[in-house]
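User: Quick sanity check before I run a bigger batch. Here is a single chain. Can you write out its predicted 3D structure?
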Amino acid sequence: MADPILIGKSSLIDVNFLPQMGNRHGLITGATGTGKTVSLQALAQHFSDIGVPVFMADVKGDLAGISQAGGGNEKVAARMKDLGLPALDYRGAPTTLWDVFGEKGHPVRATISDMGPLLLSRMLDLNDTQTGVLNMVFKIADDNAMLLLDLKDLRAMLTYVGENAKTFTTTYGNVSAASIGAVQRGLLAIEEQGASEFFGEPMLNIADMMQTIGGKGVVNILAADKLMSSPRVYGAFLLWMLSELFETLPEVGDVEKPTFVFFFDEAHLLFNDAPKVLLEKIEQVVRLIRSKGVGVYFVTQNPIDIPDTVLGQLGNRVQHALRAFTPRDQKAVQVAATTMRENPDLDIPSVITELGVGEALVSTLDEKGRPSVTQRVFMIPPPSRLGIASDAERALLIKNSIVAGVYDTPVDSESAYEKLHARASAAQLEEAEAKKAEESGGLLGSLGGLLGGTSTRKSRNDSLVESMAKSTLRSVGSNLGRAIVRGVLGSLFGGKR
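Assistant: Done. Predicted structure follows.
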């Protein structure tokens, strides 16, 4: 059993975190400038020290400092002295940098098929009718063994389905041209936000994030400062990662320490304007992924940013100061107070507004999974650097990374776009040859038509349709049973890619 981790201290009490309760999830909240980032970094490094891989999004660009040894910070030294603790053993944590845009870390990619229609419709902000058409397009692609890997694949598939809508109506349902257009416009919008760089191959293997070096868990940091300008892409990406973890990891039940810990920074971006069906799936994953050994920690300013159904699953709480200047702030204070276990010696609603920088109300789970009494303590800072990593330090981390060279070069495999383009080219070539043959028939061909002969044009058109139908049937027949099983969170309902 892993030893308890000291995370907070006051003159009266020490607050310890039990690693075996790390997969019971948690919440770190507080107003801007109250110390949430320091608490996040300290907790992440504690997990790394005991051999647990960690993922966290670097929204402000100041978390990469965890890769470098701390020291030289007078406030940190003073904090340790005031708490009566020895000076920190300054050290960094093994770190891998990631970036959807490939600028500040290794590129992160997912395929369209793997993302699935649910999260994609969330990214595109589609209504129910448009989402239905998108589901239909995915089904048609599956049935015809056409891989959807990147945006051009999906765009080509949408065009193909739109142009042949009457052909698919009987089998798949009505295809609305307006809905096809709405999806196409949505694709253009997210493409401008950088989604074209996210969708493609090689796709991220989630196992590459679950590494240890020298017995310490690797801290995976996603550069999210640029990604924040497209919150739908950001939210969908994080949820996709959770679904990948759920589908990949085996059931382990209660463990001595988590298998993997996932930090959702700026968590409100996941839930703003999210449809009910998506919220339900988030709740399901958060509730069920515990048995996979994965801990999920949400970091946000106000507890009211988190839906009640999700908030109830978060056992470990670190509450920094909140300011009650507005009615919404006052509500947030009351919510925070009511979701933490009462302490007869503390007026929690009042204390929340009085906390200083680095000070927090903490309630962790005990060995039986019960929330401990809320305590007012100072959070212990991490031994790594608080702040940014320089460009030179980042470049060195990328060069020496355990995944160096694996994801850096994109791959364009044969997929729906290439197959549809080849099919269209073949049809054009056949049409050109037919036209040439018709022209070479001259007067005799015309007389044949006048005298009741079979129309050359009609027979050739029929031949073309017949040929395309046979080609499609051959494609379907040869690939029977190879339909792509996708759908985000599909394993919850028995799906498996």
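Residues 120-199+412-442+458-492 form one domain.

User: Great, the batch can go ahead then.
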